[in-house]
Amino acid sequence: MNRKLIAGNWKMNGLRVDLQTVREIAAGLAASTAAPEALLCVPATLLAEAARQASGTALCIGGQTCHSQEKGAYTGDVSAPMLKEAGAGFVITGHSERRTGHGETDEIVAAQARAAVNAGLTPIICVGETLDERTSGATLKVIEGQLTGSLDGLEPNSFVLAYEPLWAIGTGKVATPAQIAEVHAFIRQFLEQRFGKPGQTVKILYGGSLNPGNAAEILPISNVDGGLIGGASLKAGDFLAIYNAAAALTV
Ligand code: 13P
Q1: CATH fold for the domain made of 5-248
Q2: Which residues are annotated as catalytic?
Q3: In ligand 1, which atom is closest to the CA atom of 11?
Q4: Rounded-to-integer distance, Cα 178 and Cα 157, Å
Q5: Neighbour tally for 108: CB within 10 Å
């Protein structure tokens, strides 16, 4: 079984006062090497300090997006080498809030993910369908299209995937275990066809209203290798409860 990865996405939340939450989460993680991996993707302004405070603990720190170029005239953007230097180990790419709010296409997402890998980061590449796409029966086609485009030029052991149905993000609506199992199995099959055996061990995270109340039901689902958590990652107690639900599966 893949070691699970429990990842928080703080989105545009977090001031210096919230570094206390980083410390509390770092202090609450298990020391064992079989324990789940834990990651917080914090705003770029907090990254260096969060990484400093997490250093020497099992907690990894990540960014939430990166530009596809290493440097240049891209006002307001952050490059992968910048995130790496600030202490990141991971970066989210292609989150639906970037795809829809910033026009990031599959091609752009793939270029960002390649830039991340080149900088020594592990990209967490997000895919997911809208409610309209689900109700019209297009979910698997949409996911297939996103995977085909967003993984272009990547090696199988260099990235993590996250399935985040858009209608489950920040809504309190969670995909049913059957819906999650179906899409994760489809993604696994896609990865095996594309990469062969190494496709079997690419981590596939579920994201979308994951919380302490549903983690124990979702995390054991076949091909669910962890979670990408928004709202519930802002509270140390909630994040650690989800982490502990994952840890309970590994013992
Ligand atoms: P919520 O957990 O708040 O639904 O957010 C999910 C998400 O978008 C994580 O990237």
Answers
A1: TIM Barrel (3.20.20)
A2: 95, 164
A3: 10
A4: 27
A5: 19
